[in-house]
Amino acid sequence: DNNLESKEDNLIEPDRLKMGTLIGEGEFASVFEGALVDRNGEEVKVAIKTLRNEQLESSRENFRKEAKVMINLNHHCIVKLLGICIGPPLQMIQELVPLGSILQYIDMHPNEINPNFEFQIWAAQIACGMHYLEENRFVHRDLAARNILLSTKYQAKISDFGLSRALSTDKEYYSSLRGGRWPLKWYAPESCKVGHFDHKSDVWSFGITIWEMYSFGASPYGDMKGGEAIALIDKGERLSQPEACPDHIYKKMLQCWTLDSSERPTFKELAEFFKSDPEYINVK
Ligand code: ADP
Which of 1, 15, 38, 142 is catalytic? Predict the structure, then answer.
């Protein structure tokens, strides 16, 4: 049963919420810091994602889709949805991930990062969370550095399930990419061209995400348009090796960007690769 309101546990009464300051703005929602009062009267800090255009049916629908995906997920590398508050306005109550996205963190603390340590840990955690998502048959479809949040310097969490979909009995998902704004530069060629999404297209996006990280927040393909980036990939070209990226990790990125999706590594392999890397053990 994936009807949110039918699961009473997921519903949070408005009087249990205390709103704090604004911490982020998304496409459909504003995110506030706040507190959730638990049954013993104790307060837990939370993030309250509040729908902005309550009147718009399409916004409500998108917001609910996102909540439906998230309510089923429970993993330390994925932002946890604690429940929803019907409002109005409709609100998602999430665990608070206070340090912002890895992009913001890299931008603010570039000198406090050792690529062979922090990046390695974040990459392992993203792959681990994505492997969990794969086991639960969800495709993320918007994996990008901007959607990886940090709860501490050593705990990255995947967020933003606005484009995520559960795979049906088939192992893939098709979407019409007409209209809307799609993160084409993060998308695998098969997603850009025929709207085909599966775990292997998420692996392509994982490659772009870690490229952003090792490039210290550069934008993939600079100011090229999505279509131009696709043409470049068609010619066999790929994003170049970031200066801070060791050879063996760049090799892994290139494998994520194999045209034949069946030749890309799995998230399980990627999680093991980033965890078992000898350099990771050395710096520890
Ligand atoms: P959208 O899905 O519309 O892009 P996001 O979910 O990405 O919106 O939220 C916008 C911003 O709010 C994020 O970039 C992040 O800075 C902040 N944010 C989102 N969720 C949380 C959270 N659980 N804890 C802390 N900050 C968050």
Answer: 142
